[in-house]
Design goal:
- There is one protein chain.
- This protein starts with 5 loop residues before the first helix and ends with a strand.
- By secondary structure, the chain is of the alpha/beta class.
- The longest helix has 18 residues.
- The strands form four sheets. It has an eight-stranded parallel sheet with strand order 9-8-7-3-2-1-11-10. A six-stranded antiparallel sheet has the order 12-13-14-19-16-17. Strands 4-6-5 form a three-stranded antiparallel sheet, with no helix packed on it.
- The protein is built from 18 helices and 19 strands.
- Helix content is 31%, strand content 15%.
- Helix 13 runs parallel beside helix 17.
- The chain binds 1-deoxynojirimycin (NOJ) and calcium ion.
Length: 578
């Protein structure tokens, strides 16, 4: 196998800047805080950071509404702070990729302010402006965040299009000037030394140019409610087809692949940078070399329970699809981010959450592909259910609250509950550093931008876990070290074993000796997702494994693969030796 690129070997860690570390004690995370925590990240053992948007933004969508693509949000610091952060990360061998929002800007970006100032402004065509129809919007399209996708502008008597919030007008990517302006911003950061980009919402960049009405009879609220109360899988399937039909003209339109190729050629002007698409479609790998380096394996996350059967089926399909594109199409696994519930809350069973959190990490670090972890999961942070609508910062939660209470006329308590479930705030609360007021994120008495989860006081904080050799944090550190020292886990092929096993996952990761002098290696991984012990018998030519990792206490240094006892919730990695 050819020498892998850095991003194929790396474990990425997503920093959500508002919630990671508050350096100046004002209740909001910032670059100073991140700089102070670089040693923590180095000790943790991650290799690369994906930084969620750090640009100036009025924060209608928590930074995904960018008001300037080549600057830093004042509450996060300055460009010099950013440079210091980047250099500090690089000095520690940690790469940094930025979030790049292509689909839309903030409505307060100067481009949109100009564009909306008059119909003949030179930037008018930088966004999607259309005349209304019969006294209403140009067509029946919805914003995925609720309500019409069109916002009326009285000054110029036209509507502009927004797939997300109305404060996020869509850019017109068919306009070459828009491309140029964004590619200039891309070069600005690459020239500074950033290592690449995570591309936000690429599927929504183009719309059908004729703006045809979608055919769905239900409203968005009705469809959302129907999905919520679906009577079973068949009903759910039918409703999700309706959902797809509702947005069919607004996503994955022709033109995307040419655009990604254009962006790739900008990136390829620089050495060794990476593009990761917020999209699960494998077709974005292009021919393996001319579009994105990676897209997320989101299908893995689309379940309530990560069972061995589910994971196996996902891997089988995903790896086969990638291999069909090209040997260069590299997998990229994740279980959580700032848009989804916390891994521990989502995939726990309420009784063995800690054990399962360890297995989920073991799974991320032993499957084939680049793992993306989300800040805070290393200490087992959980979702926080907000108690009052005034605490919500994610407007999606606020929208659901009003839709349930005012449109569906349901009780306010139910509206609050639904809002708390839909709101992404629950997974965005400040990182819990110590057992002290505000979890040590900000000084006592300071109101943090989102409330701190009170479970910092019961062990869910960094300082307590640093001192405990058996903590989840130390489990993360051990497993990250293991992966770094084990070539088979980084680049090895994946071969599934015991495919019928309902309780556990067993597979091999195998790497051949390479022409550059690296030795071959085969590891056997067994992950027991159940509370039952199992005796596993593998009919392999090499029967003895040197133990590389086990989350259960074991005697001796080697194990017999024809009779491997695995304990409840054990994660086991052995290297086959003879
Ligand atoms: C995906 C981002 O992850 C999400 O947080 C954001 O709201 C939308 N894209 C719109 O930018
Ligand atoms: Ca701050």
């Amino acid at each position: 196998m050819a020498e892998l690129k850095w991003w194929q070997k790396a474990v990425f860690y997503q920093i959500y800047p508002r919630s990671f570390a508050d350096g100046n004690g004002d209740g909001i995370g910032d670059l100073r805080g991140m700089i102070q925590r670089l040693d923590y990240l180095q000790d943790l053992g991650i290799d690369a950071i994906w930084l969620s948007p750090h640009y100036p933004s009025p924060q209608f969508d928590c930074g995904y509404d960018i008001a300037d693509y080549t600057d830093v949000a004042p509450e996060y610091g300055t460009l010099d702070d950013f440079r210091e952060f980047l250099d500090g990360a690089h000095q520690r061998g940690i790469r940094v990729i930025l979030d790049l929002v292509l689909n839309h800007t903030s409505h307060l970006h100067r481009w949109f302010i100009e564009s909306s100032s008059s119909r003949d402004n030179p930037k008018r065509d930088w966004y999607i402006w259309r005349d209304g129809r019969d006294g209403g919007p140009p067509n029946n399209w919805y914003s995925t965040f609720g309500g019409s996708a069109w916002e009326y502008d009285a000054r110029t008597d036209q509507y502009y299009y927004h797939f997300f919030f109305k404060q996020q007008p869509d850019l017109n990517w068919r306009n070459p000037e828009v491309r140029q302006a964004i590619w200039d911003a891309v070069r600005f950061w690459l020239d500074m030394g950033v290592d690449g980009f995570r591309l936000d919402a690429i599927g929504t960049i183009f719309e059908h140019p004729d703006l045809p009405d979608h055919p769905v009879q239900k409203s968005l609220v009705e469809l959302g409610a129907a999905m919520e109360f679906a009577s079973g899988p068949a009903d759910r399937e039918k409703l999700s087809k309706e959902w797809e039909a509702m947005f069919a003209y607004q996503v994955e339109q022709p033109g995307m692949h040419e655009l990604m190729q254009e962006l790739r050629s900008v990136i390829d002007e620089y050495d060794d940078r990476v593009l990761v698409g917020e999209n699960e479609e494998i077709v974005y790998h292009g021919n393996g070399q001319n579009e994105l380096h990676m897209v997320f394996n989101f299908p893995l996350m689309k379940t309530k329970q990560l069972t061995p059967d589910w994971i196996r089926a996902n891997q089988q399909q995903r790896l086969a699809e990638l291999a069909a594109v090209s040997p260069e199409a590299w997998p990229c696994n994740t279980l959580g981010n700032h848009d989804s519930p916390r891994v521990e809350s989502r995939y726990g069973d309420g009784a063995h959450d800690d054990e399962l959190a360890r297995l989920h990490l073991a799974q991320m670090l032993t499957l084939r592909g680049t793992p993306f972890l989300y800040n805070g999961e290393e200490i087992g942070m959980t979702d926080l259910e907000l108690q009052d609508i005034s605490q919500f910062r994610d407007l999606m939660g606020v929208w659901v609250y009003h839709a349930v209470r005012d449109d569906l006329k349901l009780p306010a308590e139910l509206a609050l509950q639904r809002a708390a479930e839909a709101s992404r705030d629950r997974a965005r609360t400040p990182l819990q550093w110590v057992n002290a007021p505000n979890g040590g994120f900000s000084p006592a008495g300071v109101e943090t931008w989102l409330p701190v989860n009170p479970n910092y006081a019961v062990g869910v904080n960094v300082a307590d876990q640093e001192d405990d050799p058996h903590s989840l944090l130390n489990f993360y550190r051990q497993m990250l070290r293991l992966r770094k020292q084990t070539p088979a886990l980084i680049s090895g092929y994946y071969t599934s074993l015991h495919e019928e096993a309902a309780d556990y996952l067993a597979f091999l990761r195998h790497v051949d000796a390479d022409p550059f002098g690296g030795a071959g290696q085969t590891c056997l991984v067994a992950l027991n997702f159940s509370e039952h012990s199992h005796t596993l018998s593998f009919n392999l030519k090499t029967r003895v494994a040197r133990r590389r990792f086990s989350s259960s206490g074991r005697d001796g240094a080697t194990d017999d693969m024809s009779r491997l006892d695995i304990g409840p919730f054990e994660a086991y990695v052995g290297e086959l030796i003879s």
